[in-house]
Fold:
Amino acid sequence: MKTDKNNTSNRLNCSVVNKCGGCQLQHYSYEKQLEEKQKQVNTLLDKFCKVEKIIGMENPYYYRNKVHAVFDTDKKGNVISGVYEAGTHRVVPIDSCLIEDQRADKIIVTIRGMLKSFKIRTYNEDTKVGLLRHVLIRTGHKSGEIMVVLVLASHIFPSKKNFIKALLKVHPEITTIVMNVNNKKTSMVLGEREQVLYGKGYIEDTLSNKIFRISPKSFYQVNSVQTEVLYSKAIEFASLKGDETIIDAYCGIGTISIIVSDYVKNVIGVELNREAVKDSITNAKRNKVKNAFFYNQDAGEFMKQIALEKQLVDVVFLDPPRSGSTEQFLNSMVTMKPNKVVYISCNPVTLERDLAYLVKRGYEVKKAVPVDMFPGTKHVETVVSISHKKNRHAYQCKCVVW
Structure:
C-alpha cells in the first residue's frame, strides 16, 4: 500500500474494513480523520459561528464500551460471529475490532467456541430455527465491570447452569450475565423478557465523578473517555452561576442531569423511555442528588405543556437522536425564551437545520466545537452554545418527581 498523509504508519490495519462498513474512515490516518470531520462541521455551521478545533482522542482505538455481535453459520456449517455487512443481513466474521473493547471481543470468541460442545444452534431468521441470536457486552471503563447479555430466540436454555459455569471459568472477570428473550421478527436486538443468570443484572461505571447504573437496555455513550470531554465542554458553554433551573431534554439515564446538578439550583430531565427514566431516578439516588427531577414524557410534548403554563427556565440542554429535535420541541422552547441553549448533536446535518430554525426566531449561535466520539467512523459529535438576543428573567419551574 502506498504511504502518504492519508495512510501513515501511526494507524492499525483492519482486515475487514471494506466489508464491514462500520468504520468508514479507518483507512485514513487519525490526523486525516479529524481533518475530514472538522471540514464537515465547518461546511455546515460556519454560517452561524466560528467552529473551534475538533477535540480528538489520545488513543483512538478500542474505545467502545458496548459491543454487539450477531451469530450465524457459514456455508460449511461453521459458527461465525461478527456484524452485518452494511445494507445487508450477511454476517462479516470478526474476532477482534479496532474500535471495540478488547475484553468484550475475547468473550464473544469464547462463547462462539462453546456452542458446539453445548449443542446450541445459532438462530436462522429465515427458518426460525436455532437459539442464539446475538451477544451484547457492556463494559465499565473505570469500574472494570462486564455485563454479558445472551439474546435467545426462546426462554428454554438447555444446560444453562453448566454453560454459565464454563463461561465464567474462562472469563472470571465477567460480573453479570443476563438472558434476554427476543422471539419476534424484528431488527431490534433486545426483546422484552429478561432473566438474570449471574450477578446483579447491571453494571456500574463512573463518569465525571458520578456513578451510573447501566442495564442491558440503558442508553449510555459508547466512548467513556470522550463523553467526559463532551459533557465538560457542554457545562463550560452554559456559563452556569449556580442559581439556574435547567431542562435536560432527551436525558436518557440522567447522565447530563446528574453531572450538571452540582452547578445549578434545579435540573428537570425529560425522557420518553420508561426504563431509562427509572434508571435516572435510581442514579440520582445513588449519587445523593436531590435537585434533579425526572419526567417520563415525550420531550416535545413536555416542552409544549410547560410553555403553555409559562413555566420558564434559564438554560436548556438537549441531546436528541440523529434525526435531531422536533419542530414542536423547538417551537415550545422559543416560546419559553430560555437565556441559553446548549445543543449536543451527533448529526451535523440535522443540527444545521435546527440552528437555522432557532436563528430565525431570536437566537444567535455563539460557538461550536466538534468532539470526536467515534474514531474510525464518519460520525462526529458537536456541542453548540446558543443565546437569546434579549435577556429576560426566568420564572421558576415547579418540579415534581415522576
In short: The CA atoms of residues 107 and 171 lie 7 Å apart.
